[in-house]
Amino acid sequence: MVEIKTDAALEAMREAGRVVARALAAARDAAGVGVSLRVLDEAARAVLTEAGARSPFLGYQPSFAPTPFPAVVCVSVNDAIVHGVPDGYRLRDGDLVSVDCGAELDGWTGDAAVSFIVGAPRPADLELVKATGEALDAGIAAATVGNRIGDISHAIGSVAAAARCGMPRDFGGHGIGRRMHEDPHVPNRGRPGRGFPLRHGLVLAIEPMLMAGGSDAYRTDTDGWTLRTADGSRAAHIEHTVAITEEGPRILTLP
Length: 255
Hints:
Elements lengths: L6 H24 L6 H15 L21 E5 L2 E3 L13 E10 L2 E10 L5 H19 L7 H14 L10 E3 L6 E5 L16 E4 L2 E3 L6 E3 L6 E3 L5 E3 L2 E4 L6 E2 L4
Antiparallel strand pairs: 1-3, 2-10, 3-4, 5-6, 5-7, 7-12, 8-11, 9-10, 12-13
């Protein structure tokens, strides 16, 4: 069931989105050569605690997961696409890092992700992060009243195809509101003019995940959570929670 949010609900979700933005900024600021992934989780956790927000990630266990998720952020490094579990791995010079975070505040949820490079970047990684950001921008630009989910999907997929990047077919964006994952599903590829119609008050988490090798194949780590590119190429993941409004798309997870 798809829930259309009231304007008051959008304002409440904007506050949750601000918390997400602060938590992601804290995790990014904490990252550096020699820093363990657990430190990034601790930095984000402190922001959520200070804001009085709950983590929708911590303890989350969808049907595919063998155990509840143990952290408030997913941290995916290099060939990890999404759902990386923060552990004792210490970041190295040139690592490509994606951090995904959610926050529930006063019953409403925000969800966003960033990708960045620690230390000296590889030019190819800069291009991958740029393409992923452009795919997100294209998807957001298509999130307008009168369009359909397929228009968002097509916009994202067109940018990924032009960059010759792969994307995991089984994963994409989603509706969001009272819960982190709601209907409708937002594929990262699709045909324009198809799918659920976009209306004022619909809120979506739009999240392209691009894989530099060009293949769509991925594998799951033994932890049952972390998805990695099957060919070992690097991946980037960038996400925003976006409200469809009569005035145009409104990004709710900006600072």
